[in-house]
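sry for the spam today, last one i promise. C-alpha cells for design, 164 residues
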C-alpha cells in the first residue's frame, strides 16, 4: 500500500486572537439589525426625480425635489424610500401595488405619492408645506388652479373647463 501524505496541521491560533475573534462575533450578533446590515444610502436626487415621474407622471424642479427628498426621508425613512424607488424602477405598473405590499412599504409609498401630489409632507415634527402653488396635483388637473392664482382673462371661473 502506498503511503498517503497527510496535510500538516495548522498552527495553533494564539489565545488572544481567538478571544478577539469571539468578542467581535458577539458584538456583531448583538448589533441592531440596521448596523449589522448597513443602513440604506440616501436616495440620490436624480433617482428621486425618476421615482416621482414613475409614481405620478410628473417631476419637481431639482431644488424643490431636493427639499422634498429630505422631508420624505425624515417622514418614511431612507430604507423605505430606497425600496420604493427600486420597486418602482423594476416593476411593471400593473404589478407595482402588489410588490409594494409584499415588501411592506405600501403605506410609505402612499405617503410618498400624497406628498408628491400635494406638496405637503407629514413629518414626525408635523406637516411641512413645500410646494402649494407648484404641487403636482395642479398639473394633474389642469382645468383648475391653486387659490389666488388667476386664470388670466376676466370671467375665467365662470367658463366651463373645456371652453377656456
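last one done:
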Amino acid at each position: 500500500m502506498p503511503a498517503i501524505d497527510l496535510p500538516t496541521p495548522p498552527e495553533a491560533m494564539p489565545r488572544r486572537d481567538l478571544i478577539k475573534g469571539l468578542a467581535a462575533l458577539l458584538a456583531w450578533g448583538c448589533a441592531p439589525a440596521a448596523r449589522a446590515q448597513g443602513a440604506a444610502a440616501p436616495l440620490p436626487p436624480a433617482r428621486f426625480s425618476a421615482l416621482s415621474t414613475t409614481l405620478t407622471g410628473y417631476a419637481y424642479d431639482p431644488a424643490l425635489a431636493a427639499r422634498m427628498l429630505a422631508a420624505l426621508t425624515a417622514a418614511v425613512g431612507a430604507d423605505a424610500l430606497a425600496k420604493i424607488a427600486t420597486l418602482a424602477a423594476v416593476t411593471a405598473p400593473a404589478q407595482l401595488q402588489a410588490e409594494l405590499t409584499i415588501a411592506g412599504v405600501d403605506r410609505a409609498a402612499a405617503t410618498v405619492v400624497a406628498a408628491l401630489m400635494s406638496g405637503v409632507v407629514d413629518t414626525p415634527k408635523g406637516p411641512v408645506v413645500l410646494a402649494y402653488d407648484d404641487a403636482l396635483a395642479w398639473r394633474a388637473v389642469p382645468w383648475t388652479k391653486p387659490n389666488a392664482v388667476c386664470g388670466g382673462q376676466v370671467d375665467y371661473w365662470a367658463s366651463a373647463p373645456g371652453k377656456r
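Confidence is low (pLDDT under 50) at residues 21-38. ok im logging off now
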